[in-house]
Design brief:
The protein has 411 residues and is mostly helical. It is 57% helix and 4% strand.
Length: 411
């Protein structure tokens, strides 16, 4: 029971002492709803990775020994724990290893224990890892206005109907808002408001850096609003068609279900009368035997058919399957759409993800003279570090060295 109580937050932890298990179970129950689903998923995944590493080496999973944790860092970083020298390619990236340690530390704090990640030997292992590995993160290739226009032209040329209209609206909204994929997936029609000159605004109710749900409002250009309207109209037409088809399907199933119920009841009545005669019931022997239904006997009672509801869910972007609509796109769907559309448009060389529109948007804004403070507000960043990272080459071209050179050239 204790292990099951831990699963929502940490998964299963082998050989866990009862006292610690009780503390973690109590914490997991109290923490319900306190963390984002992605955080809970990371805690479970990271704990599972740590437990598997310990089981393979005979180490105690929980509480963790600082020396074992330092060896864990060295192993994932491709460093020999004995010589402290790199011996092969790293198994994980720096940020991933740091996240593992954060999850392990979280688990210890939840049980009221001192985190082994704060030990000196673990700190030294982290410093060794950062010196051995490249800490500069890989940046996805940008999708700015020019690239997105090319992708949208390819979608229009392909003529994919409803799906093409949805993907066009999706890319334009991501271009204007600089929203993360998770934020776009949560957009609701009720939060969309029309403004002047065909433009509009969208309330981003919650984000990665806004877990309290204070929200921020992003501006959408007239072409984005027009694309959203085209997508919504096509969606409503397709929705009406699916609803009519579902009504016809459901009506037929109800008719079949009624006949099956009647057959099942007649079969039960016949079997009951036969059983009563077999037991020697005089009244049953004198009564006429109910007719046995034709055809093969039914082994189970019929299942009542379910009606599929294709009505609006309120989410702006929904997946379209062969048999109908899903509730909403998720982050993985949006990443797949961006990759598929960029490939179809001829962008074979780059590494494009749903984050590409944020990188490209920052670079476009910086090229137009937008400052980092305004970009932070637009993209929902808490610090200027990430937008500065996305536009570091453009910022370097505006830097002191470049300005000094330009002043000398103008003299």
């Amino acid at each position: 029971m204790v292990e099951n109580a831990l699963e929502p937050l940490y998964g299963r932890i082998p050989a866990l002492p009862d006292a610690l298990a009780e503390r973690l179970a109590r914490y997991a129950a109290e923490a319900k709803g306190a963390f984002a689903p992605a955080t809970e998923k990371a805690l479970i995944s990271d704990t599972k990775i740590w437990a598997a590493w310990c089981e393979g080496r005979g180490c105690c999973v929980f509480p963790a020994a600082p020396d074992d944790l330092a060896a864990f860092v060295d192993d994932l970083a491709g460093i020999d724990p004995a010589t402290k020298e790199p011996v092969g390619p790293p198994k994980r990236r720096t940020k991933t290893i740091e996240r593992y340690l954060s999850s392990i530390a979280h688990m210890h704090r939840a049980a009221g224990l001192t985190s082994p990640a704060s030990a000196t030997v673990v700190g030294l292992a982290l410093k060794r890892m950062r010196r051995a590995l490249t800490v500069r993160p890989r940046q996805t290739d940008p999708l700015g206005e020019v690239q997105i226009a090319t992708v949208i032209a390819a979608i229009a040329e392909a003529g994919e109907g409803v799906t093409g209209l949805r993907d066009t609206a999706l890319l334009l909204v991501m271009r204007d808002s600089l929203c993360r994929a998770s934020e776009v997936a949560e957009m609701m029609w009720d939060n969309l408001k029309r403004g002047e000159n065909g433009a509009g605004t969208m309330l981003v109710a919650r984000s990665k850096t806004d877990q309290d749900g204070q929200g921020r409002v992003v501006w959408l250009s007239p072409d984005s609003m027009a694309a959203l309207e085209a997508w919504r109209q096509a969606h409503d037409i397709e929705l009406a068609r699916l609803s009519e088809a579902e009504e016809r399907r459901y009506s037929k199933l109800v008719e079949v279900y009624g006949r099956q119920v009647a057959t099942w009841e007649a079969q039960l009545a016949h079997e009951a009368a036969v059983e009563a005669r077999r037991r020697g019931n005089l009244e049953a022997k004198l009564a006429s035997l109910p007719p046995r239904p034709r055809g093969r006997p039914m082994k189970e009672p019929p299942v009542e058919p379910r009606r599929i509801d294709w009505t609006m869910t309120g989410y702006v972007f929904r997946p379209l399957f062969k048999g109908g609509w899903g509730e909403r796109l998720v982050t993985a769907d949006i990443i797949a759409i961006v990759r598929r559309r960029t490939w179809a448009a001829g962008f074979y060389e780059g590494r494009y993800t749903a984050h590409s529109t944020r990188v490209g948007g920052v670079q476009d804004h910086l090229a137009d003279g937008t400052d980092l403070a305004a970009l932070m507000q637009l993209g929902g960043w808490k610090s200027p570090a990430m937008p500065a990272r996305y536009g570091e080459r453009l910022l370097a071209e505006r830097g002191a060295a470049a300005e000094k050179w330009r002043r000398r050239q103008s003299q």
